[in-house]
Amino acid sequence: MSAGVGNKKSKEIGVGILGYSIGKAHAYGWQDLSRYFYPPKLTPKLIALAGRSKEGVEHEAKRFGFERSYSKWEELVRDKEVEIFDNCAPPSLHPEPTIAAAEAGKQLVCEKPLARNAKDARTMLDAAERARVKHMTGFNYRFLPAVTFARKLITEGTLGKIHYFKSAYLGYNGGFDDPSYPIKWMHQSETAGYGALADLGTHAIDLARFLVGEVASVSGASETFIKERPVAQGSSEKARVDVDDTTIACMRFREGALGVFEASWLTSGRVDYLRFEAYGTMGTIRFNLERLNELEVFIRDDRADLAGFRRVPVVGKDHPYMKTFWTNQGIGFAWQYSFTNELHHFIECLAEDKPLGPIGATFEDGYKAMLIMDAIAESSRTEKWVRVPE
Ligand SMILES: NC(=O)c1ccc[n+]([C@@H]2O[C@H](COP(=O)([O-])OP(=O)(O)OC[C@H]3O[C@@H](n4cnc5c(N)ncnc54)[C@H](O)[C@@H]3O)[C@@H](O)[C@H]2O)c1
Question: Structure pTM?
Fold first, then answer.
C-alpha cells in the first residue's frame, strides 16, 4: 500500500507499540519522522497500541492516532498488520513478547534496558537473529546532535587517544528522592532487574561503549538507601525496595582508557543529568543532557593565552541531524527528537536492508550493556574487580 506523503509516495509499514508511557514518545517519533526526513523510505503507520488497562489504552490510542488498541500483548503480536513490534513495557515484559514477535516475523524495537539481566537479553538477541529480523535497543541518546558530534570528534581523532572517560546519569525520577513516593515496578528486581543502574545507568554505559569502546572489567558498588516505600500514595502499608538507588563503578576499557561511572535517582536537584566527559591526548569534550544543544570542547593546540572550553552550540546546519530541520534559525533541538532520529534510522536500515550499527544500538548492544551491568552488580556483591565477558 502507498501512503500519501505529499505527492511523494512511500510504502507504509504497520507499527504496534506495547506500553504507552514512554510509548507516547515512540508514537510521536514514528509519526514525526516523515516531517523531518522527507520522504521517508517507508512511512510508519500506527496500527495498534497495547497496555494493561482497557480504558487507558483506548484513550491513548485515540489521542495518538492508532487504529486500534489491545489490553493483552498477545493480541498485538497476533495482529498481522503490525510489522514493527515496538516494546515500551517494563523490562520484565521485554523477553516474552519480543521473542513471540520475532517468531511471528515482526521487526523489533525494544526499550532499554533490554532485559533484567544478560541471560534474558541474550535469548532476545538469539531469537531476533534466528528470525533474521532487524532489532534495535532504545538507546535514543545516541541520536542527539551533540552526542553524534562527540562521536565524530573522537573517531576522526580530533581529541587524540582517549585515556579517561566519565559518565553519569543522575536524577530524581520526578520524586524518588522522597521516601513517601510510592513503590513502582522500577523499585523491585522482579520487574526491573536493577534500580538506578538499569533505569538511568544503562544509558551512561551505552554512551561509554558508543564513544570509547568495549569495557574489559569493572569495580562497582551499589546501595539501597530507601529500603521500603508505601504501596500507594499516602498508604501506611510498605513494600520492600530490593534494587539499587545509587551505583558507582570504575571501569577499564579494552583499548586502555580508564572510566568512572555513576547512576542515582536520589540526587535531588539533578533533573536529567546524563553527563559524559572524554579526555584525550589532544583535547576534551563534555556533555550534559540538561543542556542538550551544547557540547563543551577544549582543543589542546588552542592558542595558549586563549585556552579554555568553548561551548559549541550544535544547532547549526553543519551539525548532525540539523540539516533536516525546516529552518536554519538554530533554535535548538528537543529531547523528543532523539526518538524521531532513532526511529528514522531504523526505518532507513529496514528499507535498505542495512545494518543498524554502529550508529544504531542493536540487541547485541543491549546485551553487551547488560553484561556490564551484571558485572557491576557482581562486583558490588563480591567487593572484587569483575571481568566483563567478551
Ligand atoms: N529511552 C528512554 O529515554 C526511556 C525513558 C523512560 C522509560 N524508558 C524505558 O521504557 C520502558 C517502560 O518504562 P515507562 O517509564 O514507560 O514505564 P511505565 O510504568 O510508565 O509504563 C509502562 C507501560 O507498560 C504497560 N504494561 C505494563 N505491564 C503490562 C502488561 N502486563 N501487559 C500490558 N501492558 C503492560 C503499562 O500499561 C504502561 O503503559 C522501561 O524499560 C524503561 O526503562 C526509556
Answer: 0.96
